[in-house]
Amino acid sequence: MGDFTLAVDVMGGDFGPRVTIPALAKALSQHSNLSLLLFGDESQITPLLEKYSLLHSPKIQLHHTEQMIDADIPFSKAIRQSKNSSMRLALEAVKEGKAQGCVSGGNTGALMGLAKLLIEPLPNIERPALTSLIPTMNGKSTVMLDLGANIEVSNSQLQQFAEMGNLFAQVMLDLVYPRLSLLNIGTEENKGTAQLQAVHQQLKKRQDLNYIGFIESDKLTSYLTDVIICDGYTGNIALKALEGAAKNIISLFKKEKADSNICRNTKRYLLKLIFYRYYRKLQEINPDRHNGATLLGLSKVIVKSHGGANANAFYYAIDYAIQQIEGDIPNKILQGLSQNPLIK
């Protein structure tokens, strides 16, 4: 792909420019065809740009605004507060064609609401879904959606998530006939809510989809499927449980420099020795490396980073957006949906 531009809400997230600027510096060093539109408080951003020798970079345009959306305010108030905010200006740059995608670590509800308000949705998609790549224990990835954009969904919307997830996996994971599963509390036919059972039967009839049935949450990282479909409430809980477990287990193996307890250090050493292979695999599941969820179902690439992301994690959110822009994901999903007579 040729040159492209990414709009970034520099103020979004718990740490703002202290995290976003070093992440952007790394992204520019890795992608020579990348340009950036930065939106945020010039007084906070400029010293950091200078620190990373980017103050006069031709690859960067800085748009000053002192307005930002608070992270913990209700959705309706966030939308009212959004005028001239760094998040809204970044999304407007995408809407106006000045950038091909946007990354923000700001208020999740505001980002989703503003994106749906400003960015044109794909035809026949009622609601976009937060979508991410979930790492598995064999080093491959699984697509999972929805991860929090829609707390309640209809049967038809779950089928639309299956459609989008199928196409997303084809492009992002280079798969020909991705395996699709519904997240449920069991794999038996009679398990789960009436809605899950109904959608299960509907997907079984789809000859165009490789639907293989239910999957349980303890198998999320087992690579038993390529696409995991769920509502946003269930998906968000499952993802955060997975991330928390991975972080906590990894922390058990890490040696603290201040720890002088010989017995404890010996235990940690033995754990690393015995479970080294599994420890290496757990590092691959480290949430920092898989930060970023895209709002799939819109005509442009919009990526949400964790608010508490560090610079390394925010870099991966940027890289995730770049992969989708270079892969022309929205257009390829549009083409795939338009070729399917079942959803016209």
Note down, in words, how this protein is organized.
Helix 1 links the parallel strand 1 and strand 2. The chain has two domains: 1-125 and 297-343, Isopropylmalate Dehydrogenase (3-Layer(aba) Sandwich), CATH 3.40.718; 130-289, 3-Layer(aba) Sandwich (Isopropylmalate Dehydrogenase), CATH 3.40.718.10. Strands 3-2-1-4-11-10-5-6-9-7-8 form an eleven-stranded mixed sheet, with helices on both faces. Helix 1 (17-30) packs across helix 2 (42-51), helix 1 crosses helix 11 and helix 4 (86-95) runs parallel beside helix 5 (108-118). The protein is an alpha/beta fold. The chain has helices at 17-30, 42-51, 75-80, 86-95, 108-118, 155-172, 194-204, 232-253, 262-274, 276-284, 311-326, 329-338, and strands at residues 4-9, 34-40, 60-64, 101-104, 129-135, 141-145, 179-183, 210-215, 227-229, 293-296, 301-304. The longest helix has 22 residues, at 232-253. 44% of the residues lie in helices and 16% in strands. The chain is built from twelve helices and eleven strands. The model has no long low-confidence stretch (mean pLDDT 88).
Keywords for this entry:
344 residues, alpha/beta, Isopropylmalate Dehydrogenase, 2 domains, eleven-stranded mixed β-sheet, 44% helix, cytoplasm, Phosphate acyltransferase, EC 2.3.1.274, lipid biosynthesis
Provide the fold topology.
Blueprint: E1 4-9, H1 17-30, E2 34-40, H2 42-51, E3 60-64, H3 75-80, H4 86-95, E4 101-104, H5 108-118, E5 129-135, E6 141-145, H6 155-172, E7 179-183, H7 194-204, E8 210-215, E9 227-229, H8 232-253, H9 262-274, H10 276-284, E10 293-296, E11 301-304, H11 311-326, H12 329-338
Parallel strand pairs: 1-2, 1-4, 2-3, 4-11, 6-9, 7-8, 7-9
Antiparallel strand pairs: 5-6, 5-10, 10-11
Helix pairs in contact: 1-2, 1-11, 4-5, 6-7, 6-12
